[in-house]
């Protein structure tokens, strides 16, 4: 295991959004050397990758990898095809059920890449910023999914089978509201002005403010009693 400075390595999935930036800060605060992993997967909101790079630099990760895969080959989501992103006036208009912005098996795919990198690093810890309270209803954000992935990971790697390294999948934001996540991140020094949440940004990268992700972000800052530095009033 690479612990040159005494801190164990961990892999953190970093999209460039509010939640993943907070999860990265939590990882670092818990004494890990963070290795951030982002994906250029054909998403329409590729501006989030610029945000991921900003966050990775600001939090001084050990290494930041942007992995290129093309989920547009499969489509099936408003984020990876020409399907329209839903827009609403208020967060309470977001309906029940799994929205069209769900990308089939996305977190399973991303976590599998994280697992592969973690094994090469000798890392037993993977962090992901999924949330099961103020979120869009994606099935791969639920605690039972994270638990199932961890169980699978400990059957899948040479290090685990040989008893050298157990895998722990950390979802530190899972049971927090968006407001609680924001308060946690602010307490850890996260600059949310570096992050990006919008699913359907304009050509200049500005957030639409009416997609599910934008509305949940606005709701979180309002309930946290804080101003969003990315969208000053």
CATH classification class: Alpha Beta
The percentage of residues in β strands lies in 5-15%
Please name the CATH topology. Rossmann fold
Radius of gyration: 17 Å
Question: Could you name the CATH homologous superfamily?
Answer: HUPs
Q: Unreliable segments (pLDDT under 50, ≥5 consecutive)?
A: none
Give, in spatial order, the strands making up the sheet with the most strands: 3-2-1-4-5
Percentage of helical residues? Answer: 25-40%
In N-to-C order, the SSE pattern is EHEHEHEHHEHH
Instruction: Label the structural class.
Output: alpha/beta
Biggest beta sheet attributes:
5 strands, parallel
Name given to the CATH architecture: 3-Layer(aba) Sandwich
**How many strands in all?**
5
State mean pLDDT (0 to 100 scale): 93
Cα-to-Cα separation, first versus last residue: 47 Å
* Shape summary: globular
How many discrete domains? 1
What is the count of helical runs? Answer: 7
What does this structure look like?
The protein has helices spanning 18-29, 47-58, 106-121, 143-156, 158-161, 178-187, 212-224, and strands at 9-13, 33-40, 63-68, 125-127, 168-170. The protein is α/β, with parallel strands linked by helices. The chain is globular and about 55 Å long. The model has no long low-confidence stretch (mean pLDDT 93). Helix content is 35%, strand content 11%. α6 packs across α7. It has a five-stranded parallel β-sheet with strand order 3-2-1-4-5, with helices on both faces.
């Amino acid at each position: 295991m690479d612990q040159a400075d005494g801190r164990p390595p961990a892999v953190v999935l970093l999209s460039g959004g509010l939640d993943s930036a907070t999860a990265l800060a939590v990882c670092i605060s818990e004494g890990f050397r963070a290795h951030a992993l982002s994906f250029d997967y054909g998403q329409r909101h590729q501006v989030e990758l610029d945000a991921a790079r900003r966050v990775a630099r600001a939090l001084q990760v050990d290494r930041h990898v942007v992995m290129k895969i093309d989920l547009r080959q499969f489509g099936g989501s408003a984020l990876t095809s020409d399907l329209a992103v839903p827009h609403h006036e208020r967060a309470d208009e977001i309906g029940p059920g799994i929205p069209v912005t769900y990308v089939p098996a996305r977190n399973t795919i991303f976590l599998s890449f994280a697992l592969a990198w973690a094994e090469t690093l000798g890392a037993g810890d993977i962090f992901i910023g999924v949330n099961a309270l103020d979120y869009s209803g994606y099935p791969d954000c639920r605690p039972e999914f994270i638990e199932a992935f961890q169980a699978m990971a400990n059957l899948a790697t040479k290090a685990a089978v040989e008893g050298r390294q157990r895998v722990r999948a950390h979802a530190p934001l899972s049971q927090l509201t968006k407001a609680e996540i924001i308060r946690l991140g602010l307490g850890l020094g996260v600059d949310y002005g570096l992050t990006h949440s919008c699913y359907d940004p304009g050509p200049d990268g500005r957030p639409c403010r009416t997609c599910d992700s934008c509305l949940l972000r606005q709701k979180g800052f309002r309930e946290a009693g804080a101003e969003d530095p990315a969208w000053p009033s």
